[in-house]
Amino acid sequence: MITIKEVAKEAGVSITTVSRVMNNRGYISAETRGKVEGAMKKLNYQPNQLARSFHSKKTFYIGLLIPDVTIPFFTEMTGRIETRLHKQGYKLFLCNAKGRGTDEVQYLNMLFQNKVDGIIIGTHMLKTEDYRAIELPVVALDVTLSDSIPIVSSDHAKGGRLATEEFVRNQCKCVIQLVGDVNIKTPSFIRNNVFSQILKENNIRCINYSMKNSELSRERYYSIAKKIFEEYPQIDGVFSTDLVVANVMKYLLDIGKKIPEDVKIVGYDGGDVAKLMYPSMTYVEQPFDLIADKIVDILLRKINGEKISSSIVLPEIKLVRGMTT
Amino acid sequence: MITIKEVAKEAGVSITTVSRVMNNRGYISAETRGKVEGAMKKLNYQPNQLARSFHSKKTFYIGLLIPDVTIPFFTEMTGRIETRLHKQGYKLFLCNAKGRGTDEVQYLNMLFQNKVDGIIIGTHMLKTEDYRAIELPVVALDVTLSDSIPIVSSDHAKGGRLATEEFVRNQCKCVIQLVGDVNIKTPSFIRNNVFSQILKENNIRCINYSMKNSELSRERYYSIAKKIFEEYPQIDGVFSTDLVVANVMKYLLDIGKKIPEDVKIVGYDGGDVAKLMYPSMTYVEQPFDLIADKIVDILLRKINGEKISSSIVLPEIKLVRGMTT
Questions:
Q1: Is the C or the N end of chain A the one with fewer CB within 10 Å?
Q2: Would the CB atoms of A69 and B79 count as touching at under 8 Å?
Q3: What is the chain B residue with the closest CA to A74?
Q4: Which ranges carry the HTH lacI-type domain (chains A, B) (predicted)?
């Protein structure tokens, strides 16, 4: 097996220089880098990452702990986060906690055992003190974990306001918003409060329907739509995340309701599903690319020793008006 | 730091027994396992997976190399594969090769460097001999890599036949099928051949439109729909994967065409998108759960030393008839 010593000899540089090139550390001229990389290629040198990280104490692994990669928001974020980490030489462990605390603990233990350099967390089934006890760099993706862990999220207050204004503009009388498990602390609940508040100020009835954890599956949304319209036939406006309102739209069209004449619809997120619906959906679009940029940037800065605990709220959130309002 | 020796002492068993429990190897009675796990919990023992795998030569890492986790088929498969691997104690490295050969090589090198125990590959931009040269257990997800690498896929011949019969039954005159990059070898092309063949036998014109690699992005499908209908206004049937035909449906409805009166539509895959469309889409549903079961099963058997090179074709593929045919 080729060693780093042989690479250094072939390139005519010191072992430290080869190590610097490999670890992307310190100043290396383009010429020196070219020599070292040429030597590596010529000798077909394969650094043993496992042995290397065993000695360097850095593994270049990042854990991504989310409820489920098949949830559209997390599909969009996972793809983007992985691409950005890969460009920086990091590898991603994907962990789907499935909204179960036991799985979350198991995954966190796995990540500790594998000595990841940092963790991005987008789920929250444990207690605040459990998250505070994590001694690794952690950044939260749109969830509130503890005071010391920075959160990256969209400006949900603005997003909530943009959505509500659509229902006010259309003179709706009774609007329902379907929200996730209220026991999970996430900044996105700000939008739900803003939403209720603005409707109230405009004397529009607001029904808040909190979906239970067991209902948070793609197969259940259609039957939830059925349930709410049987209970509240007077609803003339619906607000929730893309996939939920897409199912509501499908249910309403199936039973012969007209959109937007009978019911106005606004989605939240602006992923693929929102863009594909017919009639074209009015939705609030989250800045997925920027969220991914920021969360990776903060995590890598924390890994490099910066102390960051303040959160980032991205104001680049906008309304895309379709034919459902 | 707590060592395995202290755990053994606390549990009143040998170090070998603790190791067996940790590695799930050999026969261990429920009582002994309980003792060991109780001692680990009491002492808050955290096995150092990195050190452990450095000595055992097994890492419990699996690489999943796919084009992009945001492509619906791969979203569905990634979620399911990760869940199954996690249950067996394996961790997943997610690699999005983005259809670029350079990224694929880089990711494969990364996986070798990290000494993964096995790789699931669902992309194909390298030469057959490159894949044949991989000395690790590899299973292919719906792509043809080399003779020695088993493929797990649906019965695409049956899927293609089920789809074609919908257009024949509806007496279509001119049907287009939109297919992916024909340079990528995948068993799914069997369905495209079956499709052309059956249409020909029934004297129905079949237009084969092969999307270039650069067109294989979600943003491009709508403009492809526009392009093909401007070039071939006589088209009265469209067949492609869910997301492509969903965009075609959206385009047709936007320009005022009636579905299914003017154009019949059949999707392939049966993911979320297919289930959400209105009018409800007729689609061919792939058995995602079974594909995930089989691919994980074969990979783990290969990791445990079994020689498996024969491929698996899953016949559990079915037509779900909606309102688009």
A1: N
A2: yes
A3: B70
A4: 2-56
